[in-house]
Amino acid sequence: MYNFIFHNPTTILFGKDQITNINGYVPADAKVLITYGGGSAKRNGVIDRVKNALGNREVLEFGGIEPNPHYETLMKAVEVIRTEGITFLMAVGGGSVIDGTKFISLASFYNRDATDLLKFGFQSITHEVVEKVLPIGVVLTLPATGSEMNDGAVISHGKGKFPVMSSMVYPKFSVLDPTITFTLPAKQVANGIVDAFVHTAEQYITFPVDARVQDRMAEGILQTLIEIGKINVEQPDNYEARANMVWSATMALNGVIAAGVPQDWATHMIGHELTALFGIDHGQTLAIIYPAVLAEMKAQKQAKLLQYAERVWNIISGSDDEKIELAINKTRDFFESLGIKTHLSEYGVEASAINDVVAQLEAHGMTALSETGKITLDVSRKILERAF
């Protein structure tokens, strides 16, 4: 196991009606800006519930944060903060709203061109770069990204999607009430399950470093998602299934299973380009790319793929190659059982467009991906061809 430093300061308020408890986690004199997305949080009454819980505090709203939040939209919120003297941010939404709110927090006290903050990649933005941020609270409405309990965000600008990381923007608290998610469309639920699954696998199916606790925690998350995935799509008001989905998505990317292990993330980097170029949902891009990554990189990942086959899918007979092949096929079948198509051609993309994806990967410096850096542009092309 590698050396690591682990710290996660986010308080989780889990369960039904936990919104009523946020009053104790927001300063009494805070001037709050509620950020949200397309309006469903207003229509279903969640924002009103948040306002009620905030009591007599002055509260403003900023809506319209897009899926794959746009830099230009977020900077409009920064203007509101600077004009109105906002002192606390309350993100009500899924990963895109939370990610966008993290960027808003970082940009609000950054006095130079805020596009600078998109250039750090996976390097954490420190106090030396941004001297001050606004504290963030979260009410999660869409379980998927784990952004409610981590320090990362992905921001869209131009034709690119840019990771933004900073330990300063961990949410102070996050409300995880499974009942809030009952009205989500089946497509969004399915996307969230795939997102949580691939988040976990990107940190697990790499190469062995004898991190037994992290491995078994990752395997537990994957097995849970397999067990309750289809139930969540078909029975949206099944509290126990949804509660397990919500917590799985949070645990997948809050740093616990990442501690001391190699990480891949090639699927996410390639998938980001599919979203930016073709507007394919993030979860859908992962379902398209991940089985192809496993197939293309199975020699590099052989030991962990065998472990994945045996421990997660209970594949105990056959040759090593047969076990791995069956595990990859079962992974694809799982995604498809949720109603998600797993081939690029099924989304109206032409084969010639693979050239555009590879060009974008090159433009964004994604030329040595995976846990070993061995996914070059040529290998990315092969992955995309497998995924087509």
Question: How does this model look, in words?
Answer:
This protein is an alpha/beta fold and 388 residues long. 44% of the residues lie in helices and 11% in strands. The protein has two domains: 11-180, Rossmann fold; 184-387, Dehydroquinate synthase-like, alpha domain. It is built from 13 helices and eight strands. Helix 5 (186-202) packs parallel to helix 9 and helix 6 runs antiparallel to helix 7. The longest helix has 23 residues, at 212-234. The chain is globular, with a radius of gyration of 20 Å. The model has no long low-confidence stretch (mean pLDDT 97).
CATH topology of the largest domain: Dehydroquinate synthase-like, alpha domain
Structural domain count:
2
Outline the low-pLDDT stretches. Answer: none
Shape: globular
Comma- or semicolon-separated keywords:
single chain; alpha/beta; Rossmann fold; Dehydroquinate synthase-like, alpha domain; two-stranded antiparallel sheet; 44% helix; globular
